[in-house]
Amino acid sequence: RNGSEGPQPALAYKQPLFLKYQDQGNEDGEGDCDILCGSKTGQETLRSSGADQLVQVYVSSIATPSRFWVQNVGPSSIELDKLTEDMTQYYSRKENQLFHRLDSVVAGDIVVAVYSGDSSFYRARVVAYNLDEYDSSQSTVDLDFVDYGDCEVKPIAEIYEIRTEYLRLNFQAVMCRLARVGPADRTSIWSDEAIDEFERLSSCALWKPIYAKIVNGDSTGYNAAVSTTINSTDNDDSTSSSNAAIVEIELFTLEGEENIAQELVKRGFARFVR
User: By C-alpha distance, which of 152, 219, 232, 156 is closest to 189?
Assistant: First the structure.
């Protein structure tokens, strides 16, 4: 994703993607394998635990304040750490890479790939397969990392079949938009400065918990129409090109003292909208 081809990352990870899990060993790699579409695995939802309807989340990736991804804080984040560590141990072995190597894929397939921000292996959904008709080994794949929200273009040689045991955990990235605010200049384009400030205020990819309150949406943010991640302008506020459900939320610091949308408005990076 950092190369000249394909989209640039919404935000490069600043910390390792492992949070709390300590290694408890791994199987030797024997097991059934299959490429399955996203409908086979559930989508994580935002879950409030009190009357205030607040949910503790990590902001994992940001395109703009109108399109970003969060994860629940809690047992599922620990399970994701274990899953990522297990997959990395397994797919780092050359013999396993050869066994699971794919010659082609189709949109919707769930596969495994390394994210360029580090050396770990993650689950990803195929957005598009770009066939090189002169040399199929040079074909590329547009990917959406279903547990974090990031996207990347990878060579087909670096895409691997996923084992069915790695599909048991719900996809963790919930796509959201910040409620009741839009770009300050009344266009559909968020400024780079606004995005940078939102990243800072939300502690994006720093794995610092903050509070989310659901304003509108089904609480899943299921991103089946992941072409938005790949094809739309990164700072475009428009969602007309996608059928993906986006959960509207408010974000607050963990102490509950700072409403992030209000801070963006106060600092001149956003405006209130109905």
Answer: 232
Residue 73 tokens read as 């804080």
CA 139, distance to chain mean position in Å, is 23
Q: 161 near 54, Cβ under 8 Å?
A: no
Asked whether the beta carbons of 145 and 117 are under 8 A apart, the reply is no
> What residues have CB less than 8 Å from 126, skipping those under 6 apart?
105, 106, 107, 108, 109, 110, 111, 141, 142, 143, 159
CB atoms within 10 A of CB 17: 21
Model confidence pLDDT, tens digit, residues 75-111: 999 999 999 999 999 999 999 999 999 999 999 999 9
SS3 229: helix
Please name the amino acid found at residue 132. D
Q: Give dist(CA 87, CA 122) in Å, integer.
A: 7
**Residue of 178, 170, 167, 258 lying closest to 214 (CA atoms):** 178
Q: Which two tokens stand for residue 1?
A: 């994703």
Average confidence (pLDDT) per 10 residues, the chain, 274 residues: 36 37 41 49 84 89 98 96 98 98 96 93 98 94 98 97 97 97 93 98 96 80 38 49 73 85 96 92
pTM for this structure? Answer: 0.79
Q: 194-197: long-range contacts at Cβ-Cβ below 8 A with a sequence spacing of 24 or more?
A: 194/64, 194/65, 194/264, 194/269, 194/270, 195/62, 195/64, 195/65, 195/235, 197/264, 197/267, 197/269
What confidence tens digit (pLDDT) does each residue in 101-131 have? 999 999 999 999 999 988 899 999 999 999 9
CA 49 – CA 70 distance, rounded (Å): 17
